[in-house]
Specification:
The complex is a heterodimer of chains A (about 300) and B (about 800).
Chain A (H helix, E strand, L loop, with lengths): L1 H16 L4 E5 L10 E8 L3 E8 L1 E2 L6 H6 L6 E5 L4 E3 L1 E4 L8 H8 L3 H4 L5 E9 L5 E8 L2 E8 L6 E8 L6 E9 L7 E8 L6 E9 L7 E6 L18 E2 L3 E9 L1 H16 L19 E15 L2
Parallel strand pairs in A: 2-18
Antiparallel strand pairs in A: 2-3, 3-8, 5-6, 5-9, 7-8, 9-10, 11-12, 12-15, 12-16, 13-14, 13-17, 17-18
Chain B lengths: L1 H16 L4 E9 L10 E4 L4 E4 L5 E6 L2 E9 L3 E9 L3 E2 L2 E3 L17 H4 L5 E5 H6 L9 H5 L5 E3 L7 E3 L7 E5 L2 E2 L4 E2 L4 E2 L6 E7 L13 E7 L8 E6 L3 E11 L3 E10 L1 H8 L10 E16 L2 E18 L4 E19 L4 E20 L2 E23 L2 E23 L2 E2 L8 E15 L4 E15 L2 E5 L9 E5 L4 E18 L3 E12 L1 E4 L10 E4 L7 E14 L4 E18 L17 E17 L4 E15 L9 E2 L6 E10 L4 E10 L3 E2 L2 E7 L2 E6 L5 E2 L3 E11 L3 E5 L6 E5 L3 E9 L9 E7 L8 E8 L4 E9 L1
Parallel strand pairs in B: 1-7, 1-8, 12-17
Antiparallel strand pairs in B: 1-4, 2-3, 2-5, 5-6, 9-16, 10-11, 12-13, 14-15, 16-17, 18-19, 18-53, 19-20, 20-21, 21-22, 22-23, 23-24, 24-25, 25-26, 26-27, 26-28, 28-29, 29-32, 30-31, 32-33, 33-36, 34-35, 36-37, 37-38, 38-39, 39-40, 39-41, 41-42, 42-47, 43-46, 44-45, 47-50, 48-49, 50-53, 51-52
The chains are: A alpha+beta (about 300), B mainly beta (about 800).
Chain lengths: ~300, ~800
């Protein structure tokens, strides 16, 4: 976070100095494009594995909606193994979804239900295997004669000690939500933070949802988190954005993830927030997939809790 | 060992030969202000022998006894001939008259034939008079921007202060202010240099063939010498510019015995910002300014002893406030430098300079977001001493030897973080301590009328000592994280090495010569940067048990020729350079990765090479002066852990670099200057492809530095209008009208930066806008340009 702050400060000061600085579109040769498979797969405790396959695109390739749809890959052979059993994932497509799964699928693809069901977007789901704590899952994808493998582990979740809400500043009915967390004594614990309001179908990530215990290994401490849903309402009062309001019921999902998976998400968010500017090292997001694909295969070990803001 | 024995043998021959000679020695100073004059030629035409004054104005010339006409020759100060009876050795100090460039000439280089006759290669001295007439960005006269116009020297980026010399990194330049090391020579993220032109006397750049008395850096030496202060009278100099003002006060402590100079400069960007941002704005309280302060005292304790005390202190302060967002940040950074020097003459042939130095550079960043507080600091501090002896046994022979020592304290990163009452574990502030020492000897001598050799040997050593905590990272499975604790004074790692330096000159007919040079260098301190441009956040880091000393060699060959009675100087130089143990951060390293860890654990090491050819043509005298410099160069890097181990171009790899500089002195009042530069665009790494993960757009970057920005070119113009230097008075003795020099003088300097408003690339990025669903998603490569055409005016005065 600090680097992003520094980066913003540097850029704003540069632009302040060059008060008439200008930006224009240019066409320039960017070598190095390779057509690569992108694997976006996850498995969490009590849930089947879901794997989405797509292709990377040249930076100058068309970026219309059809190009986005054409990027998804179907027809691959996808299996997962827990060391004892192996399950071949079933390809489920959006135009043939099992009843009742439309909203989950819509959130997964980031498309409205009515749009999604008229498209042919496919995901691979392990109906024969669900995630269990303590197990390592190996993913194998075979596509166009190439094989890609990755492994992830579902470790024990870290429980939250307590949750509370307190008003922020001069507000009496708006504030952040707080948790008390006791980090286990071993180093390297990594977490993903998601929340939703009661009644919502899907969890949403906060703005900086991945963190590890580098700065608080073994400590018990309190921290606040914002309301990411409040930014979705274009008609919402901007002054209230980020806050939970008095009376909200918040469901928290704190998932434990592995070190290499954390490395992927840390670099991903760093790239999303600071990539492209001259003050950041150009960093490719590191994958845990072997065989030349991009993306991640991640196991989540979630801990759920509920807070009523009062 | 053989080299050392050869040295001793050569030295003993010359010591023996010197027994029957007499020596003329002394100091050469400016008659008007008493400043020591460097590089004045002391020449005996009947013997065709001569010597040059050193940076303290001292010269020594040993010849056979006799009566001689001795010429003290300087193009800036004219020529004076003295009849001197040298039946025995004698001290003869001389004041040279007023500068000839008060008349209708501008003089760029006082060393006329030196271009051809000296063994110096890749060395250029710029006069402040010349620099002050060049077009100035926002009216700020800038010595570093001036040297960026020389062949073989590249700027980091648009307006940037950092400079690259012959393919070396910015940390490979040893920047000295009165022999004190300057670790960050930039203000305002690099747009202005820390050198206040009013306080600077001369600038000397050595970009190749580094003599043995310099070391610790691989690429170049930039020597900036401060004015000593007027020995004759109190003088005030100042200027009011578009973004800053300057004031300098100098004068005698005791006439012709000692003098002082104090100079201060401050920007008023913060005042402009304050006016632009209303008190009710959420950004009220945001500001930026920098200031610097130079001071120097010197005193002649005796005819043989003189002391100098120099000091510099400068700071940038950046405050940012976003009241609405509950965010505030404060970011100060700056240098503090002090040097105490003692000149002593042991004899008329043996000159000594003893220097003690203190250098400090620090960067701090503090921020607060609601209840989260974060502070970061990094820096480097040196204390050191250096002694140099110069021995002049005879006119064809000059010997130097000396030693240098520094104690470094590095603070790569010190972080504290707190959220409400929770203090985060950011580890103890990491400090690294080290000793760096060197000894050298160099001998410049003429083997015959054609061949002059400069042979030097430097021995350098470096010790990383405790206290120190070494973090050893386990894989978390078979090995766990652990630490090794070193106590104060424990020797952690010791490195040392010999650095041979050789250069030669072979005189040819037609006022020309061929020169060749070889230099081997060790570098024990490194600058590590996470960004593609130089920033104050870059971290100085020492050699450790993991980070080995950078080392490398450079070889160069050149042809030098002067034309038209030395009015034109020209040279062609070819160089090749190899560098090992270069340092970069690991791919994907983030700031903060070195918290609770050692910085060198996130570094990777590699090698580099650079080669090129430089053409230089300079006109030094006449109403019109200037130069043309062109460089063709290639600079490559190879790191096993970067770019999959493949060779890649350095970020400042530039195939073509052209600079044209011209100054025309129309008359006593008007001087016009122009500079034009053209450079191949910098390299950078851009995303070559994109993909989607969890509905987020991610980029995959192409090979390191595989994209090249558009070429950089720019024309700057300036005009300087001087007030009349003389007034007419009636001489009461003769009744005639005479010209009397005015005490009060001023000038207006008008500059236009980027005359034809070229939008030069500062950086490029891939911008994404819109979203897929609405069908308006778009990826574009965008170029950011910083400075359009910028006119400026500065008013300067002195009395």
């Amino acid at each position: 976070m600090e680097f992003r702050i520094l980066t913003k400060l540097f850029i704003s000061s540069m632009l302040l100095l060059g008060f008439t600085s200008c930006t224009k579109e240019v066409q320039i040769d960017i070598p190095g494009y390779m057509d690569q498979l992108v694997i976006d797969g996850s498995i969490e405790t009590g849930q089947p594995a879901i794997v989405l396959l797509s292709k990377s695109n040249n930076v100058y390739s068309p970026t219309n909606f059809q190009a986005y749809l054409d990027g998804f890959v179907s027809g691959a052979t996808v299996t997962i193994s827990n060391g004892v059993q192996t399950d071949t994932l079933t390809e489920i497509c959006s135009d043939n979804l099992p009843p009742g799964t439309e909203e989950i699928a819509a959130a997964f693809f980031g498309l409205p239900v009515d749009v999604l069901v008229n498209l042919h977007l496919c995901a691979y789901i392990s109906f024969g295997m669900i995630g269990e704590v303590g197990k390592t899952y190996t993913l194998r994808v075979i596509h166009n004669g190439s094989e890609y493998t990755a492994a992830t582990n579902i470790s024990s979740p870290t429980p939250l000690d307590s949750l509370y809400w307190k008003p922020e500043g001069s507000y009496t009915d708006r504030g952040f939500s707080w948790v008390k967390l006791s980090d286990p004594s071993q180093s390297g614990d990594s977490y993903a933070w998601q929340v939703k309001l009661a009644g919502m179908p899907n969890f949403k990530r906060t703005f900086n949802p991945f963190f590890n215990d580098k700065f608080f290994n073994g400590q018990t401490f309190d921290f606040a988190y914002e309301n990411p849903m409040s930014f979705d309402d274009p008609n919402g009062d901007p002054a209230y954005r980020g806050y939970y309001k008095l009376g909200d019921t918040v469901i928290i999902k704190l998932s434990k993830i592995g070190k290499s998976e954390y490395n992927f998400f840390e670099k991903k968010y760093n790239q999303m927030y600071s990539g492209g500017n001259p003050f950041a090292t150009p960093t490719n997001v590191p994958t845990n997939i072997k065989g030349g694909a991009l993306g991640i295969w991640v196991g989540y070990s979630p801990w759920f809790d509920t807070l009523v803001c009062q | 060992m053989k080299i050392v024995l050869s040295f001793i043998l050569i030295l003993s021959c010359f010591f023996a030969a010197a027994q029957t000679k007499v020596t003329l020695s002394g100091y050469i100073t400016d008659a008007i202000d008493g400043e020591a004059l460097t590089d004045v030629k002391v020449f005996i035409p009947s013997l065709k022998v001569g010597a040059m004054s050193n940076s303290y104005g001292f010269y020594s010339l040993t010849v056979a006894p006799g009566k001689y006409s001795v010429e003290f020759r300087s193009m800036a100060y004219g020529s004076e001939v003295k009849e001197i009876d040298l039946s025995k050795s004698q001290v003869f100090s001389i004041e040279l008259g007023s500068k000839v460039n008060n008349v209708n000439e501008v003089v760029v280089n006082v060393k006329k034939t030196e271009n051809v006759t000296s063994t110096k290669m890749g060395q250029i001295e710029l006069q402040m008079d010349q620099i002050k007439t060049l077009p100035a960005f926002m009216g700020e006269v800038d010595v570093i921007k001036a040297i960026q116009l020389l062949p073989g020297v590249s700027s980091v980026s648009e307006g940037g202060q950092g400079f690259y010399v012959r393919g070396g990194g910015p940390d490979q330049n040893l920047v000295l202010l009165d022999e004190g090391v300057v670790y960050n020579a930039a203000h305002l993220f690099g747009f202005f240099s820390v050198f206040n032109a009013d306080a600077v006397k001369s600038v000397n750049l050595i970009k190749g063939g580094m003599p043995a008395n310099f070391g610790g850096r691989m690429s170049s030496v930039l020597e900036v010498n401060m004015n000593e202060g007027n020995m004759k009278r109190l003088k005030v100099t100042g200027g009011i510019g578009a973004i800053s003002s300057r004031l300098t006060l100098e004068g005698p402590i005791k006439k012709d015995k000692g003098s002082f100079i104090v100079s201060a400069r401050r920007t008023y960007i913060d005042i402009i910002m304050k006016a632009a941002i209303s008190d009710t704005s959420p950004f009220a309280g945001s500001s930026y300014f920098f200031y610097d302060f130079n001071a120097k005292l010197n005193y002649k304790l005796s005819p043989k002893d003189r002391i100098f005390l120099s000091g510099y202190y400068g700071k940038d302060v950046f405050n940012f406030s976003d009241k609405k967002g509950g965010f505030g940040a404060n970011m100060p950074w700056g240098n503090g430098i002090a040097a105490l020097r003692w000149n002593h003459l042991f004899s008329d042939k043996l000159f000594m300079n003893l220097t003690t130095t203190y250098s400090d550079y620090m960067f701090k960043f503090g921020s607060q977001q609601d209840e989260f507080r974060f502070e970061l600091a990094s820096g480097i501090r040196d204390v050191g001493a250096k002694v140099d002896f110069s021995y002049f046994p005879n006119p064809t022979h000059r010997i130097k030897w000396g030693a240098d020592y520094k104690y470094h304290t590095f603070t790569p990163t010190s972080v504290t973080a707190q959220n409400d009452t929770t203090v985060f574990d950011t580890g103890a502030a990491q400090k690294l301590y080290s000793h760096e020492a060197a000894a050298y000897i160099l001998d410049e001598f003429d083997l015959n009328d054609q061949l002059r050799l400069n042979v030097g040997l430097r021995y350098s050593a470096f010790a990383h000592v405790g206290p120190f905590t070494r973090y050893i990272k386990g894989d978390g499975i078979s090995t766990q994280d652990t630490t090794i604790q070193y106590q104060k004074g424990d020797l952690i790692k010791f490195y040392h090495g010999l650095e041979p330096r050789v250069s030669m000159r072979w005189l040819l007919p037609d006022n020309s010569s061929i020169k060749a040079g070889y230099a081997y260098n060790y570098q024990y301190v490194h600058l590590t940067s996470l960004s593609a441009v130089s920033l104050p956040t870059d971290i100085w880091f020492p050699t450790t048990d993991i980070a080995k000393p950078e080392k490398g060699w450079q070889g160069s060959v050149g042809y030098f020729r002067n034309f038209f009675n030395d009015k034109f100087e020209s040279s062609v130089e070819v160089y090749y350079k190899e560098m090992k143990n270069l340092i970069e951060f690991k791919e994907g390293a983030l700031p903060g990765d070195n918290v609770n860890d050692n910085t060198d654990n996130i570094l990777v090491f590699g090698e580099g090479r650079a080669f090129g050819i430089e053409f230089f043509l300079k006109k030094s005298v006449g109403r019109f002066t200037g130069w043309i410099g062109y460089t063709w160069a290639k600079t490559e890097r190879r790191f096993p852990d970067i770019n999959e181990g493949n060779i890649y171009p350095a970020k400042y790899d530039r195939r073509h670099d052209l600079s044209l500089v011209g100054t025309y002195k129309l008359n006593d009042r008007w001087t016009f200057s122009a500079s034009f530069i053209y450079a191949t665009g910098n390299t950078l790494t851009l995303p070559s492809s994109w993909y989607v993960q969890e509905q987020n757009l991610l980029f995959n970057y192409g090979p390191r530095n595989s994209t090249r920005m558009a070429p950089y070119h720019r024309l700057d113009l300036s005009a300087t209008l001087y007030s009349k230097a003389y007034k007419t008075k009636t001489d009461p003795a003769t009744g005639k009208e005479i010209d009397v020099k005015k005490k009060y003088r001023s000038n207006w300097s008008f500059s236009v930066y980027n005359v034809y408003n070229r939008m030069n690339p500062f950086f490029l990025y891939v911008d994404n806008d819109g979203d897929f669903l609405s069908g308006n998603f778009k990826l574009t490569v965008k170029q950011v340009s910083l400075f359009p055409i910028i006119p400026s005016a500065t008013w300067n005065f002195e009395f």
